[in-house]
Specification:
Layout (H helix, E strand, L loop, with lengths): L7 E7 L6 H18 L7 E7 L6 H11 L3 E6 L5 H11 L4 E4 L11 H8 L5 E6 L6 H17 L8 E8 H9 L7 H8 L3 E6 L13 H15 L2 H31 L6 H34 L6 E5 L1
Parallel strand pairs: 1-2, 1-4, 2-3, 5-7
Antiparallel strand pairs: 3-8, 4-6, 5-6
Helix pairs in contact: 5-8, 9-10
The structure holds uridine-5'-diphosphate and magnesium ion (MG).
The site of uridine-5'-diphosphate (UDP) has 17 residues, from strand 1 and helix 3.
Length: 317
């Protein structure tokens, strides 16, 4: 029988991962049982929380089957797809462990790396990030991800360790703090860095996805990138001022040049094309800046609605 507050919680977001769940469960269980006994706890002193983020395959049925056999497996099923980082937040809300392990459900994060993370965690940290030794992802994913992290690190103003995987381990105190942050636009990596506390990193293996394809499509990646940048930086808003200043300055110089040409050389400024091009250029910049304002305004509106972060249609405990 498991006590109400286990030593470890493992939180895993699941979106159409039916092909990966059995192997994930098998490998994770081996690791967790051994970890519990090595740490001097009974072998059932952990919980695995699988958060089904609105899967349309048989993931939820599989999770329920696992729970029937093994009560250490718990589950939350969302009413629809809310997104990776919200699924993780739901798992964190629900977790009770003193140490909380996060990992993805496609076995890109090998469970066998957990004991290594825990050994470092025991030295007195509130969070140990897993850092990929070598990233095992398709080329396009690596490039877009590099660009995203570059922009983010440059503008976010929080120190977000580079190359992090989802595999990490957090203390109860860290998780409780995160759970108090209820913003709708969730970018977990930034939020964790923002919390602070004593953290460290540790290199872990990263393997290719066991089965299936990445559940992140291009629009999902863009939304996450927007959330990340707008939640951690207001630099884009200042962009309007920078662009405005640069445009006025250049126009001023060009204007002086035209007056000079007219007065001293008698050359009138010709050109219908140049006028049209500059109108469109300035119009484009204005729309871009309005778009950025709109993005922040929309975000502010969304946050003021104070809707729940997610809707769960079923819990299994
Ligand atoms: N995931 C999720 N909701 C989504 C997309 C992904 O819960 O909308 C889960 C997915 O099942 C996996 C983890 O988040 O366990 C990471 O997703 P994925 O492996 O597709 O992302 P990638 O590794 O390609 O960045
Ligand atoms: Mg993956």
């Amino acid at each position: 029988m498991q006590n109400s507050s286990p030593e470890f919680s493992v939180v895993i977001p699941i979106y159409n991962e039916e092909e990966n769940i059995p192997e994930l469960y098998r490998r994770l269980t081996d690791v967790m049982e051994k970890l519990c006994s090595d740490a001097g706890h009974p072998p059932d002193n952990y919980e695995i929380i699988l958060v089904d983020d609105g899967s349309i395959d048989h993931s939820w049925e599989l999770i329920k089957e696992l729970h029937e056999k093994d009560p250490r497996v718990k589950g939350i099923s969302f009413s629809r797809n809310f997104g990776h980082h919200i699924a993780i937040s739901a798992g964190l809300d629900y977790s009770k462990g003193n140490a909380v392990i996060l990992m993805d459900g496609d076995l890109q994060d090998p469970p066998e790396e957990i004991p290594k993370l825990y050994n470092k965690f025991k030295e007195g940290y509130e969070l140990i990030y897993g850092i990929r030794q070598q990233r095992q992802d398709p080329f396009l994913k690596k490039i877009t991800s590099k660009l995203f992290w570059w922009i983010l690190r440059r503008f976010s103003g929080v120190d977000i360790p580079q190359g992090q995987t989802m595999l990490r381990i957090l203390s109860r105190r860290h998780v409780n703090t995160l759970n108090e942050m209820r913003e709708y636009a969730r970018f977990i990596h930034g939020m964790m860095a923002w919390v602070g506390f004593k953290t460290s990193t540790l290199e872990v293996k990263h393997t290719p996805r066991l089965k299936g394809q990445s559940k992140y499509n291009i629009p999902k990646m863009f939304i996450l990138a927007f959330h990340a940048i707008t939640s951690f930086s207001t630099v884009p808003l200042r962009l309007a001022a920078y662009i405005g200043f640069t445009c006025s300055f250049i126009s001023f110089i060009v204007g002086i040049y035209f007056i000079y040409q007219k007065i001293f050389h008698g050359i009138p400024v010709l050109g219908y094309a140049s006028i049209i091009v500059s109108i469109f250029f300035v119009g484009g910049i204005q729309l871009l800046v309005l778009g950025i304002f709109g993005e922040y305004l929309g975000r502010t509106y969304q946050e003021t609605q104070k809707r729940p972060l997610y809707i769960a249609k079923e819990y299994i405990d």
